[in-house]
Amino acid sequence: MPASGIKTRILIISDTHSRPLQNDYPHDPPRAFREPLPDADVLIHCGDMTMTGSVPDYNATLDVLRASSAPLKLVIAGNHDLSLEEKWMSNHREKDWRFVAMEEENDPLDKKASVSKAERQVRRDCKSVYQEARDFWTKEGGVARKEGVVFLDEGSHTFRLDNGALLRIYASPYTPDFQDWGFAYPVKTHDSFNSHTHSFDKTTNICQNPIPSFSASSTEESERNVDVVITHGPPYKQLDLTATGLNVGCPHLLHAISRAKPLIHCFGHIHEGYGARLVEWANNDSAKASDSKNDTTSTTVDTYMTETWRTAITPSTHGDSKSSGAQVSFPPETDIARDRSVRLDLSSLTTVTTSSQPQSAAQALMDVDDEFVEETQDEAKAVELKRGRNTLFVNASIVDLGYKAVNAPFLIEAELQGAV
Ligand SMILES: [Zn+2]
Q1: Residue 15 C-alpha to ligand 1 middle, in angstroms?
Q2: Cα(249) to centroid of ligand 1, in Å?
Q3: Which of 54, 150, 180, 365 is least surrounded, with the fewest CB atoms within 10 Å of its CB?
């Protein structure tokens, strides 16, 4: 691997839920998520582009993507982008309120009595609604492709960027089942991210395209290590804490990420988990060890969630009981507003170790400000992120729990290898 790579600006957003770049109320102070989006070499959207997956919602998302000058824009689906999952569509049809809501937005005429029942049935053919959504994002010469948007299905994807860098991505829209939304799997029993050999004991493997393991010796373009993993949901214990105090991230995903050791793993889904954390992997020097060691055969999901996950991450970045890794310091609020983004450079991150003072979950929940004050008292540490040793986790949810677009996009500068 060359000592220095090609500086690449990666703009990351998630969970925009078809919110526009304009303020909700004209008198609100200008927020960071506004026009134009900051310049970047590539833009990534980690899913939940819409509320239910209607075409007007997709158009609103395309308006946001159009406001970016990035020559390449990568998007994945989230659990709300229902019309992009064929299975959800065929299982729900017009019986589900979300399907009805989607169709009423797709075709306001549906609400009128003048539309005959027969016409509605044709319109509500789930296959054609699915195809319409699919065509919107993926059709050659279609609206999204014309804007430089590439919709990613589950699996590995490699791109040559205009700046000469090669970007290797792994993408997956799947999240643990929650209130019967899209792209779901039962997290306690099913693995959607690893190969059979890396799945936990007593687990059903449903992964079509596993996340590839890190290898220190990979030189061929086809087997380059993954630079960025894009999923809709967070992994277990990483920016996955809900307002009700639960870590709802996926343990199979954390295990997969600890194998793949990408530079960046970005996601959204848990709006209140917005932020960035850095981990150091415990097994960070042996390429063989991360791939050949079948370390999960005797580990169940329950054991992994209660204890084993800690062995993947070095003790210094374990963090507290509710989250792992070290919190990455953000630039001052005024800089974020000016830059319309949180700018982070992987060669000079500053992390803040969370307080060693034990804080009860109840106390942390009751007062977020208290937590903030405690953390600022801790020591800041400058860190250079190293490939195969560290991963930066980014929860880039733009909207909050009330679906207001309060959070800033992330603009991350990373050194990528050039295309050979
Ligand atoms: Zn969301």
Answers
A1: 5
A2: 14
A3: 180
pLDDT, one tens digit per residue, over 230-262 is: 999 999 999 999 999 999 999 999 999 999 999
**CA–centroid distance, residue 248 to ligand 1 (Å):** 14
Task: Give the whole-angstrom CA distance, residue 120 versus residue 420.
Answer: 53
Ligand 1 centroid from CA 43, angstroms:
18
- Residue 41 Cα, ligand 1 centroid: separation in angstroms? 25
Residue 400 CA to ligand 1 centre (angstroms): 9
DSSP string computed for 103-141: HHHH-GGGGSTTS-HHHHHHHT-HHHHHHHHHHHHHSTT
Ligand 1 center to 58 CA (angstroms): 14
Ligand 1 mean position to 239 CA, how many Å? 14
Checking phi first, is residue 217 left (phi over 0); if not, alpha (psi -120 to 50) or beta? alpha
The reply to whether the predicted model has a pTM over 0.85 is yes
User: Is the peptide bond between 36 and the residue preceding it cis, with omega within 30 degrees of 0?
Assistant: yes
Enumerate helices (H) and strands (E) in the chain, giving the number of each: 12, 19
Q: How far apart are CA 261 and CA 327, in angstroms?
A: 18
pLDDT tens-digit profile of 104-137?
A: 777 765 555 555 555 555 556 778 889 999 999 9
Q: Answer for the pair 268, 76: CB distance below 8 angstroms, yes or no.
A: no
Query: CB within 8 A of 307, min separation 6: which ones?
Result: none
Closest CA to 322 of 246, 250, 387: 246
| Ligand 1 centroid distance, CA of 194 (Å) | 24
